[in-house]
Amino acid sequence: MSKKFYITTPIYYPSASPHLGHAYCTTLCDIIARGKRMRGFDTFFLTGLDEHGEKIQKNAAAKGITPQAFVDGVAETFTSLWSTMKISNDDFIRTTQERHVKTVEDIFSRFVKNDDVYLSSYKGWYCVHEESYWTETQVGDEHLCPECGRPVEEKEEGAYFFRCSKYLDRLLKYYDENPTFIVPLGRKAEMVNNFIKPGLNELCVTRTTFDWGIPVKEAPGHVIYVWLDALTNYITALGYGQEDDSKFKNYWEDPDCEVVHVIGADITRFHTIYWPMFLDAMELRKPSKVFVHGLMMMKDGKMSKSKGNVIPVPPLVEHYGVDSVRYYLAREIVFGQDGQFTPEQFVERLNADLSNNFGNLLNRTVSMIAKYYGGATPEYKGDLNDLDKGLHEVFNKTIAAYEVMSDDLKVTESYAAVMELVSAANKYIEESAPWALAKDPAKADELASCMQHLSSVIFLAGMLLSPIFVTKSEKVFDQLGVPADKRTYENACTFGSTGGLVVCKGEQLFPRLDVALEVEFIKNLMAAPKEKAAA
Ligand code: ME8
After folding, report:
1. According to the model, what pLDDT value does residue 534 have?
2. In angstroms, what is the span from residue 47 Cα to ligand 1's centroid?
3. Cα of 189 to ligand 1 centre, how many Å?
4. In the prediction, which pLDDT does 533 show?
5. How many of the other CB atoms lie within 10 Å of CB of 23?
6. Given this model, what pLDDT does residue 157 score?
7. Does ligand 1 lie within 6 Å of residue 158's CB atom?
8. How far apart are CA 270 and CA 223, in angstroms?
9. Residue 212: CB within 6 Å of ligand 1?
10. How far apart are CA 97 and CA 50, in angstroms?
11. Is the pTM of this model over 0.70?
12. Is residue 311 lining ligand 1, measured as CB closer than 6 Å?
């Protein structure tokens, strides 16, 4: 089986500063990508910006600058946030880049030539914010956008339409043949019942009312509608239609390469209905999976600057460290479900899992190996008693569970399993009572075995956590004394591979947090003046 993996985030609109919601999606994708690389997959991880459209043009005009200058400015805040979050993307696509613009023009020309698009005129209810037309029924009597709730305006313009009707059967067949194309599974029913069953209209794919977009060569005055432009980023970034298309060939064109788009629920329709149709029209393979993650909400609803409930990411990372913030995002909010950020849960999660559970296991183990063996970790000599056997079994089960769950993108569940291993090891210490074994010369083998079992578990847990702990896993390995060239996934999965290593007690990696003080700190961050809160 090929071990290739291509993962993408949505390309975000550079219409405002990025917030914890954007950081959430990108960080989860980063954790998945790093996990695959750790396991030896040939991985490509893409993120980027969706820089065209009326909204951007309006925002730039309001600031009195060109749209390009505007997006260049916002792009910097995004790349700076990704560097703060230690995002390991392999490329950063911006839809104003020549590589993208040129290819989208060619794709459109191909659609015109093949009669996949046709010129007509469109009248409907338009939402500037969503850049979408809606039908009379969808906007209701109030004339509000069904997606974002903002007022819509009635508009008519000459436009090209994509022939969805030509590709609908193929789409439904693809759904049938690939039951896990849309995950979580309930999202598929939503698409079929809300958009396909009521009758799918042909999709309007050009605009004439603004010009901040990719021009249609065949029809001056038309620019390509932002979704056709935006969705194709996933292939233009790989070099599709360009001189160097080696990445496109290596990833997209390899039918065994798993191609995964991770998106928020707000854009499911575009990724699961129109994108596969565009790909069909280009005679290209479809993505293996569209994974729809949930929204990260605040107690009083969606994060928004006007509500003053936006969590500024950089000061949070500066205060708690990037590893802790990444851990919180992966572990607290179940990937695939909506979740709520509260300062209390943030602090309590870090205390419970990182200080009390993982940090405690590391400190106790390294101290005991230093105390009882002068630092040299005993060799593995088999499982001497039931407690040893039990922990070894959890070790093996954790590897299997981690691999299956992370392949299913059950990120939160996979890390819950890793933390269960850590809890099992802490329980094993209590039950084995090494301090008592140390007093009894007849129990010397059991004591050695106990230290070996603990150190093996920490090596594995540190490795499985390394896609999250981008700085601290290395410190865990330093404390265990693992040489740089032995810090591999295979070694960590090999029970006993820490035998003979000399531990080196270091700083406490996850000091316990004072709940009241820290909750206060986060609340102050949320209330911080705008310039401080800007990412
Ligand atoms: O829709 N919680 O861009 P966008 C979790 N350009 N995720 C959140 C979030 C929150 N509170 N807020 C935003 C667009 N997101 C298009 C995409 S793709 C070809 C084009 C994340 O800037 C979530 O992943 O509005 C959502 O789908 C995405 O940001 C929307 O970003």
Report:
1. 44
2. 12
3. 21
4. 43
5. 26
6. 82
7. no
8. 19
9. no
10. 11
11. yes
12. no
- For residue 527, how far is the Cα from the chain centroid? 27
Burial 61-85 (b: 16+ CB within 10 A, else e): eeeeeebeebbeebbebbeebbebb
Minimum-distance ligand 1 atom for the alpha carbon of 275: 19
Q: Which residue has the tokens 């933390």?
A: 419
Cα dihedral 228, 234, 238, 242, rounded to 10, equals: 0
Residue nearest to atom 30 of ligand 1 (CA): 12
Helix ranges restricted to H, 39-125: 54-63, 67-84, 98-113
Burial of 117-137, coded b for 16+ CB within 10 Å and e otherwise, reads beeeebebbbbbbbbbbbeee
23 lines ligand 1 (CB under 6 A): no
Show the low-confidence residues of the chain (pLDDT under 70): 1-2, 305, 528-535
Distance 10 CA to ligand 1 centre (A): 6
Q: Whose CA is nearest to atom 28 of ligand 1?
A: 264
Helices (H), 358-500: 360-373, 386-407, 411-432, 434-437, 444-464, 472-480, 489-492
pLDDT tens, residue by residue, 252-291: 999 999 999 999 999 999 999 999 999 999 999 999 999 9
Tokens describing residue 125: 């209810």
The two structure tokens encoding residue 431: 């039950």
Residue in the block written with tokens 């065949």: 218
The number of the ligand 1 atom at minimal distance from the alpha carbon of 266 is 27
Find out whether the beta carbon of 267 lies less than 6 Å from any atom of ligand 1.
yes
